[in-house]
Amino acid sequence: WIVALQAVGGAAGNMICVHNVVAASAVVGLLGREGSVIRLTLIPFIYYALLPGAVGYFIVWRAESGLINAGSVLILAIAATAIWIIARYGRRPAGTP
């Protein structure tokens, strides 16, 4: 489990890695806008880093601390926040407020 979590963490870090952002910005013609690209990927990065970390914490510590531990609480908080954001800001059919 630990090695898998390390691989996920490394992949998450690539989202905001300066070298990757500079290369991607150069390819798509956004030279000089690397900071805005990193800012745009910050929220997905936080989600992508926190959720696997919480799941990993839950799995590793479940045997000692049971089903209710910091990992399970964080998983529930992330799920509740995602549901709230989708309900609040999700797409609505045209003509509805």
TrEMBL record:
One of its GO terms (cellular component) is plasma membrane. The chain crosses the membrane at residues 12-31, 38-60, 66-87. GO terms for molecular function: lactate transmembrane transporter activity; solute:proton symporter activity. Keywords: Cell membrane, Membrane, Transmembrane, Transmembrane helix, Transport. It is found in: Cell membrane. The keyword Translocase does not apply. It is a multi-pass membrane protein. Pfam families: Lactate_perm. This is L-lactate permease. It comes from marine metagenome.
